[in-house]
């Protein structure tokens, strides 16, 4: 009778140990933290100071829970609707690259939550407020023409705000800027007017250059005629007439007088040449 009870106790003990082993195995005493992740250790739900790096780790089943958070760079697109200095409605599509500080993963999870909660509770409101404050300092046109300055201001102010929560800002990009239809049409008309004004200035400058060139050509012709008149002496004219004369007088004359040629001078010049 006693041996039978002993056997039953042994069976119960073996069953208890087996059940405990199954429970331990199913609870998972080993945990693997993947690449680009950190493990937040919680003892019965209480966040601990210990942070698990990448690799294999032991944990106490039932007592300890490991929450893994990504510390990789993540991209979040946020559409912010703001007002400019001149009271124009502007929509800015902002792309934010960020990641959790690997050394503050436990505090981030304790105070904020996981990645989705970070975006909803911290990132989206912070981007909206920073973008509104920066855009309110510039006119609508300056938001376009001074886009790098706007981006730099958003980057600096947003970086300071996110660091307080253990979030590191990697970069900010302004993907798109949208205005109301009325303002966009006004900008288009202004650009057309500026292009037409520039074209009118070009045409006026071209006409002025052509007029100046024509004046210079006229001056050149006048100077050429003046020099020609100075060089055409009576003797030169007679020599040119003699060179062109065939020695015969025309048989028919018009109403005008014959050109005067000094035959004596010409004969003497010909004799001298001989």
Chain-wise SSE layout:
Layout: H1 2-27, E1 30-33, E2 37-43, E3 46-52, E4 55-58, E5 64-70, E6 74-83, E7 89-100, H2 105-111, H3 115-135, H4 140-145, H5 147-163, E8 167-179, H6 181-231, H7 234-244, H8 263-273
Antiparallel strand pairs: 1-4, 2-3, 2-5, 6-7, 7-8
Helix pairs in contact: 3-5
Overview of the molecule:
This protein is an alpha+beta fold and 274 residues long. Helix content is 55%, strand content 23%. It has 8 helices and 8 strands; from the N terminus they run αβββββββααααβααα. The chain has helices spanning 2-27, 105-111, 115-135, 140-145, 147-163, 181-231, 234-244, 263-273, and strands spanning 30-33, 37-43, 46-52, 55-58, 64-70, 74-83, 89-100, 167-179. The strands form 3 sheets. It has a 3-stranded antiparallel β-sheet with strand order 3-2-5, covered by helices on one side. Strands 6-7-8 form a 3-stranded antiparallel β-sheet. Strand 6 and strand 7 form a beta hairpin. Helix 3 packs across helix 5. The mean pLDDT is 80.
């Amino acid at each position: 009778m006693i041996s039978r009870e002993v056997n039953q106790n042994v069976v119960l003990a073996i069953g208890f140990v087996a059940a405990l082993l199954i429970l331990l195995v199913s609870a998972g005493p080993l945990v693997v933290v993947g690449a680009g992740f950190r493990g937040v250790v919680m003892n019965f739900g209480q966040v601990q100071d210990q942070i698990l790096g990448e690799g294999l780790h032991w944990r106490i089943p039932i007592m300890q829970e490991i929450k893994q958070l990504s510390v990789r760079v993540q991209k979040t697109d946020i559409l912010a609707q703001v007002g400019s200095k001149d009271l124009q409605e502007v929509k800015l599509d902002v792309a934010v690259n960020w990641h959790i500080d690997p050394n503050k993963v436990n505090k981030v999870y304790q105070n904020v939550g996981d990645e989705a909660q970070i975006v909803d509770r911290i990132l989206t409101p912070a981007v909206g407020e920073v973008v509104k404050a920066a855009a309110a300092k510039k006119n609508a046109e300056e938001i376009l023409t001074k886009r790098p300055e706007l981006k730099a201001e958003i980057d600096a102010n947003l970086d300071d705000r996110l660091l307080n929560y253990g979030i590191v800002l990697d970069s900010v990009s302004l993907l798109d800027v949208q205005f109301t239809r009325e303002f966009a049409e006004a900008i288009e008309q202004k650009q057309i007017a500026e292009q037409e004004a520039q074209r009118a200035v070009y045409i006026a400058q071209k006409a002025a250059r052509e007029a100046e060139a024509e004046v210079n050509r006229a001056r050149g012709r006048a100077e050429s005629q003046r020099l020609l008149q100075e060089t055409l002496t009576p003797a030169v004219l007679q020599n040119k007439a003699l060179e062109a004369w065939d020695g015969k007088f025309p048989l028919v004359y018009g109403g005008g007088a014959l050109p005067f040629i000094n035959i004596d001078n010409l004969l003497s010049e010909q004799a001298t040449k001989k």
